[in-house]
Amino acid sequence: MAASSDKNIGDVILDVKNISLAFGGVKALTDISFDVREHEVRAIIGPNGAGKSSMLNCINGVYTPQQGSISFRGQTFSHMNSRQVAEMGIGRTFQNLALFKGMSVLDNIMSGRNLRMKTNLFQQAFRNPWFGAAEREEIAHRAFVENIIDFLEIQAYRKTPVGRLPYGLQKRVDLGRALAMEPQVLLLDEPMAGMNVEEKQDMSRFILDVNDEFGTTIVLIEHDMGVVMDISDRVVVLDYGKKIGDGTPDEVRNNEDVITAYLGTSH
Length: 267
Hints:
Blueprint: E1 12-23, E2 26-37, E3 41-45, H1 52-59, E4 67-72, E5 75-77, H2 82-88, E6 90-93, H3 105-111, H4 121-126, H5 132-151, H6 167-179, E7 185-189, H7 197-213, E8 217-221, H8 225-231, E9 234-239, E10 242-247, H9 249-253, H10 256-263
Parallel strand pairs: 3-8, 3-9, 6-7, 7-8
Antiparallel strand pairs: 1-2, 1-4, 4-5, 9-10
Helix pairs in contact: 3-6
């Protein structure tokens, strides 16, 4: 289950520099800097309220930090909305599922293809014979989505309304919808929250496979330390909105500040 030690980690693809974020007088993030290298699994950990989700929200344009900058493939942005960030190639799943519960697994994952579709929703809806190009495009998009469904091993549920699925499978559909965007960097906000041991093992395997087979760079927030230490290449640690550790899993595991603030024990 562990991250491969011989995989080819590339150059910096995402560079977070001196990010500070406050809501009124409350500081959520203070002068946070770290980078993410192409093809790695980069974990962000820390206690509840440490600023982890706020950090992801800054990266994907939900929040605009008061200070600092974020560079993606050498292009720096400080005021970018979520759609623009997605179009650049940064995908996201959320801690609280935002799936369309009445829609099928297939249609939920298809919704993740919207950024890749040239034809508009009117053309898709009416499927007029005049729109031959739209038809061909939709067939190609559906084939792409069917491959994701096969990859995530949810073929048996492709026509099932998502709201009827167990929680662990819903999280898998959420991952599939994000993958449908073909992101270069995928931000995962607690993808294993609320899962049992077996579901966590499955999700860990899928994350590693996405990283390995698709070459997707992963930035991961996760509370399960066993999972983080198993699948991550590097880990950044936040506490009360400040960075207190950054390095390999072994380096973080033995960092006294991290032990004191979060892990609670060196064993």
